[in-house]
Specification:
With about 500 residues, this protein is an alpha+beta fold. The protein is built from twelve helices and 13 strands. It starts with a helix and ends with a helix. About 25% of the residues are buried.
């Protein structure tokens, strides 16, 4: 009987041991599966978010969860300072840590590429106790592994502190290495993205600086030209009167005419350049500046758009009477805008003048008035040479023309290819900014003249490529559009109560 009881107790113990071993194996299997799932979840957690700091937080949280650690830090190497830095130290309020790349356990791991697994960090001379002193944290167990970029170079380390139950195992080391290999790919991509964004931001700031320097230089040049030009013009008038009083004159009249013509041109350039610079300043500050020849805030009027445009075209045709261009006005005749007539006149006149100067003789310009959705639109369509894609990006910048300088400098206003310095388009852009309307454009460069240096003869019948008007009309052209919102004070300058008073 005693033997039977002994055997039964032994059997019960064996069953208990087997059940305990089964539970241990099941728990180990569960942990193993959970860790494998965590590798899949890592990519899902990060997704398409390439923000480096947020990504490091996600990786650290997942590492702590899977490895059952109290804290995790990811140190990345900064080659500019040869430091290891971390903006992530879970449980340490995200405090930034920077250490020399050769100091402490993290530094040793980074320099040697060795995995460090300690049960008690304070027993190892490599441990930097100053970090604990600084943070008030007590480090016990440590697991630290290096991480590598895709080129195979060490890019940092992952460091786990204080496993919740026991010490870090060999299995933990193996898994953390796999985890780190996966995480390092995302980290490298985020670092490259951050570097690109930093480079773009640096380029943007540099362009801003250069633009400001350019504006200041041009403003200074414009100011410095004003006085000597006025003095020279005055002296020429005095000299001209004295010479005319002599019999016979010592200097021919033609010489004075040439001097006055070129001085007037210099004066016009100075004035237009000054306006462009000041208009830019207004756009940058988003408020009117003194001295800018932009209209103040007149009371808008109800304007019937069709007859207003007809009257404008009659005046414009007289100024461009030397050109053989057909200008057609189409569209709705009942549209009314509540606008400042001077603003509308200058904006529309500038677009049509631009169209005439880009349309060869025997060509055509169409002006279309229409309502599209919540907008009243004025479209100025020319069937001229068009504008290259590169130049389209800068049309409203001012101090910019779409042709080579030597191709337009000798032209007069409204001549084909007369071009300009972009003041009209920049002024229209400024009006739109201040008064709440939109100006846009689209263009197709002439298929026979794809480059800026390609010259159009200026008359369709002299074109070596197009035999008819229709062929010319199909080859290229541009459309500029003014869009005014419908309803309310849709063209009243946006000024504050203080500015009005």
């Amino acid at each position: 009987m005693q033997t039977y009881d002994t055997e039964r107790r032994k059997g019960d113990r064996r069953k208990m041991i087997r059940r305990s071993e089964d539970r241990a194996r099941a728990e180990a299997q569960h942990r193993h599966v959970h860790k494998l799932h965590s590798l899949l979840e890592l990519g899902q957690l990060i997704g398409l978010d390439l923000q480096l700091n947020e990504m490091l937080i996600q990786i650290s949280r997942k590492a702590c969860e899977v490895m059952e650690a109290d804290r995790c830090s990811i140190f990345l190497h900064d080659p500019n300072t040869d430091e290891l830095w971390s903006t992530v130290a879970l449980g340490m309020a995200g405090e930034v840590i920077r250490i020399p790349s050769s100091i402490g356990l993290a530094g040793y791991c980074f320099q040697t590429g060795e995995t460090i697994n300690l049960k008690d960090a304070y027993t190892d001379d490599r441990f930097n106790k100053e970090v604990d002193s600084h943070t008030g944290y007590r480090t016990r167990s440590v697991l630290c592994i290096p991480i590598y970029n895709r080129a195979g170079s060490r890019s940092g380390v992952i460091q786990l502190l204080n496993k919740n139950d026991g010490d870090f195992t060999d299995e933990d080391e193996t898994f953390l290495q796999t985890f780190g290999n996966n995480a390092s790919v995302f980290i490298e991509i985020a670092q490259l993205q951050k570097a690109r964004l930093n480079a773009l931001e640096q380029s943007r700031r540099e362009l801003e600086r250069l633009n400001k320097a350019k504006s200041k230089a041009l403003d200074h040049l414009s100011h410095e030209l004003r006085t000597p030009l006025a003095v020279i013009q005055g002296n020429i008038r005095i000299l001209k009167r004295k010479v005319q009083a002599q019999t016979p004159p010592l200097i021919r009249e033609e010489i004075f005419e040439s001097l006055e013509k070129n001085l007037n041109r210099l004066s016009e350039i100075q004035q237009e350049t000054d306006q462009i610079i000041r208009t830019y300043q207004e756009l940058e500050t988003k408020s009117p500046l003194k001295g800018i020849e932009i209209h103040p805030s007149p009371l808008p009027e109800n304007i019937s758009l069709y007859p207003f445009t007809e009257s404008l075209l009659e005046r414009l045709k007289k100024q461009a009477s030397h050109r053989k261009i057909q200008i057609i006005l189409d569209g709705a005749k009942d549209l009314v805008l509540h606008v400042d007539p001077k603003i509308l006149d200058e904006s529309l006149m500038g677009l049509i003048k631009n169209a005439i100067e880009n349309t060869p003789d025997e060509g055509m310009i169409r002006i279309i008035l229409e309502q599209t959705g919540q907008w009243v639109q004025v479209k100025v369509m020319d069937f001229g040479i068009g504008i290259t894609k590169d130049n389209q990006e800068h049309l409203f910048d001012g101090l910019f023309h779409t042709q080579e300088t030597d191709l337009y400098t000798s032209k007069k206003p409204y001549d084909f290819g007369a071009g300009g310095k972009g003041l009209d388009l920049l002024r229209i852009k400024t009006y739109g900014h201040r008064f709440g309307f939109d100006v846009s454009q689209g263009s197709q460069r002439c298929t026979h003249l794809p480059l800026e240096r390609d010259v159009c003869p200026g008359k369709i019948s002299e074109c070596p490529y197009c035999k008819t008007q229709d062929e010319c009309f199909r080859s290229g052209g541009s459309t500029f559009c003014l869009s005014f919102p419908i309803g309310g004070e849709n063209f009243v300058e946006k000024v504050s109560h203080e500015e009005k008073h």
